[in-house]
Design brief:
Layout (H helix, E strand, L loop, with lengths): L1 H31 L5 H30 L8 E2 L2 E2 H21 L1
Antiparallel strand pairs: 1-2
Length: 103
């Protein structure tokens, strides 16, 4: 079981870091985009589905680790434990998406 949980811990850490990098970079990218066309909005809805799926997958992996008594409170992304990070990331993404459709 340790080999499996160890692998999943690494996937959660990597996924969290990649999600953090995406959420950090995307507002700047959206600001640089001058045109907010229908295709842009459609693309953002597709991206929204993927981000929500990533968040759900990361939460499921964290929950799985907890069932094997892995101390997920020691897993940190950007100074937040993984649970707080995922909650914060979801709110941040919702704000980014709202801003993208407002402009």
């Amino acid at each position: 079981a340790h080999l499996c949980t160890s692998h999943i811990e690494k996937r959660v850490a990597l996924g969290g870091e990649q999600l953090d990098a995406f959420l950090t970079k995307i507002p700047e990218t959206l600001t640089d985009m001058a045109v907010r066309s229908d295709s842009f909005r459609s693309h953002m809805l597709d991206v929204n589905e993927k981000v929500k799926c990533i968040l759900k997958s990361l939460r499921n992996m964290v929950n799985f680790l907890e069932t094997f008594d892995v101390d997920v409170d020691t897993m940190y992304i950007r100074g937040e434990d993984i649970q707080e990070f995922l909650e914060h990331a979801e709110h941040l993404w919702d704000n980014i998406l709202t801003d993208a459709f407002r402009n």
